[in-house]
Each structure stands twice: as C-alpha cells, then as structure tokens.
Amino acid sequence: MSHDMSEEKLPESHGSAGEVADHGDPFADPGLPAHEPRRTDIDERAAKRAERQVSLMFVISMLATVGFIASYVAIDPDKIVYIFPLGHVSALNFALGMTLGVALFLIGAGAVHWARTLMSDVEMPAERHPIEADDEVRADVIQQFRTGAAESGFGRRKMIRNTLIGSMALVPLSGVVLLRDLGPLPEKKLKDTGWKEATPQKPLQLINMSTNSPMTADDIVIGSLTFAMPQGLHTHDEDFQQRIAKDALMLVRIAPEDIKDDTSKELGFQGILAYSKICTHVGCPISLYEQQTHHALCPCHQSTFDLADGARVIFGPAGHPLPQLKITTDEKGFLVATGDFDEPVGPSYWERAR
C-alpha cells in the first residue's frame, strides 16, 4: 500500500527545535541588559575619591616627565649601576626608561580609570544608516556629542581636566630633549676653517695633497683638478681627518674669458679658482670635474656646480654654491690664501646666514 509522504504527519519535535518553534526567530536581538549604576554614580564621595585618584596619576606623570629631563641633564652617560635583577646597566638609560615609562603609563591609566568610574557607561545602540547622513542625523550626533561631553565631566571636573592637560603638555618635552642627542651643536665650529689663520700680511701657502709641497701658478693647468690643504696641516696630525673635513680645497684653472662671475674672477688668480671641496648638500667630498663644461659633480647625490659661474648649483639637492677662497701668489711665486672662505663650508645649518 503506497503512502503520500507529503501528507504523512511527522512526529512532533522536542528540545531546541521545540523552543525555536515556541520562541520564534533564534537570531532576534536580545537587547541590552538592564543598566546597573556604579558606586560613583550614586555616591558623590566615591566620585570625588575617583577624581582625586585620576588627578594624582596625571600629577605623578608630570613629575615623571620632569624627572626624565632632570635625569638627562644630571646623570653622566658613562655611569654604570647595578640594578637587580637586570645586573649592570647604564644609569642614564635606566632613569630615562623608567621616568618616561611611568609618565606615559599613568596618562593611560588615569584616562582608563576616569572612563570606568566617572564617565557615562550607558550603552546607546544605534541602527545602521547610510554613510551620508541627513540633517536630522547630524543634529542628533552633535547633540549626543554634547551630552557625552557633559556626562564625562571634562568641564565640570576641573582638577582632572587641568592635570590631564598638564601631563599631556609635558610628555612631548621628553622627545624634544632627546633631540639633543642628534649630535653636538655646531656653534661656530663650521663657521671658520684652518684658512682663517691667513691674512694679507701673513698668507698661507696652498699645499698639494698629492705631493705635500707648495704650488706655483704654473703647476695648475687648464682642465685639471687639483686638491690642496693649508700650510701647517700634516697628514700625520692626530686631528688631521677632523680638520681636512673643513679645509679641503679644490683648484681649477679656467680661461679668464670663460669665467662668467666677476666676483669669482676677482677671488681667483689668473683664472685659477679655489673652491671648498665639501659639497653643500650633506658634506661629501667632490671629486669629479668635467673640463669642457667646467662642472663639478658630487658623487654622493649628483649635485652639480658650475665652477665658471661662482660654483652655483645647476642640478641636484645642494642648497647653495660652493664657498670660494681668495688666492694670490707670494714673493716666491707660490699660491697662497689671504683669508678664510667667503662663507661657512658644507651643508646648511640653523646658525648660518643661508
């Protein structure tokens, strides 16, 4: 005997299936649990105590920032101390790490404690809406923001507000202080070079760096590039590398009619021009010269200078022309300098004019 399965009565389901049948959609929004007030919501003394705790964290954060700066100034970078269980560590690094860590931690901890005890914790669900909001939604958001700001107590709890502002304002000073470690201040170290000893009454000879001997004008031929250093500087000197980094000179000879810059021509001698060898971009030594165009090229970043036109920059990242040295000859016919460069050598820095 056949049976129509479509009409067969299925047994009644039990358990969860029955519950689904009884309670409807299993994915229905259950809603939010009832809001339970915190102690600080109903006890003003507790709220005041929480306010003092948050403010104390912010005040200690400010003191830690001051301690960071004081440690940086007062502690010898070479001082080593024993800290259990770390062992022997740098006193300066330990002090800086601890003070900065405390300053940052307490700002975060204070903000969390403030939010958990004093700011409103009422959840406000909102249905999804299109990205572009209408005027009514915008007005509602602004009103919610104002309500949230009022409930946070930021304006009413002035002690928290002021200490938070103070701690947040002081913390960046830690980073500003650390900028000092970028290197020693240039002061006037880059303003003068070893050529400053030269005067018209007591000039300094130009010493060929290859032969270590003074040069005459005839030693410099058109199209050549010669490197020189000031008289009295020797390669075996203990501070030679430090001094040559500023004193290094390059000499070129250009037909006088090809020199475009009149000032440059006056500083030279019979077409011989003396320029700083130090690139004005980041201080690399210039060593490439193209005699047909009179262009000098820095090999580091390809800054190019026209030596026939006051060594002005014609390509690359260099910011200003190469400084030029005034030269002439002494009674023996040797090339000499009568003063320092017309401006500081090397890259730009804050204290220089340009």
UniProtKB/TrEMBL annotation:
Q: Where is the Rieske domain?
A: 272-336
Which CDD domains does this UniProt record tie to the protein?
Rieske
Establish whether keyword Metal-binding is in the entry.
Answer: yes
Q: What's the main place this protein lives?
A: membrane
Q: Superkingdom, according to UniProt? A: Bacteria
Keywords, alphabetical: 2Fe-2S, Cell membrane, Disulfide bond, Electron transport, Iron, Iron-sulfur, Membrane, Metal-binding, Oxidoreductase, Respiratory chain, Transmembrane, Transmembrane helix, Transport
Q: Which residues cross the membrane?
A: 54-75, 95-115, 162-179
**Which membrane topology term applies here?**
Multi-pass membrane protein
Q: Which residues form a coiled coil?
A: none
GO molecular function per UniProt: 2 iron, 2 sulfur cluster binding; metal ion binding; monooxygenase activity; oxidoreductase activity, acting on paired donors, with incorporation or reduction of molecular oxygen
Compartments it resides in:
Cell membrane
* Chain segments carrying region Disordered: 1-40
Q: What does this protein do?
A: Iron-sulfur subunit of the cytochrome bc1 complex, an essential component of the respiratory electron transport chain required for ATP synthesis. The bc1 complex catalyzes the oxidation of menaquinol and the reduction of cytochrome c in the respiratory chain. The bc1 complex operates through a Q-cycle mechanism that couples electron transfer to generation of the proton gradient that drives ATP synthesis.
Family as reported in the entry's similarity comment: Belongs to the Rieske iron-sulfur protein family.
Q: What is this protein called?
A: Cytochrome bc1 complex Rieske iron-sulfur subunit
Taxonomic source organism:
Streptomyces kaniharaensis
Organism lineage: Bacteria, Bacillati, Actinomycetota, Actinomycetes, Kitasatosporales
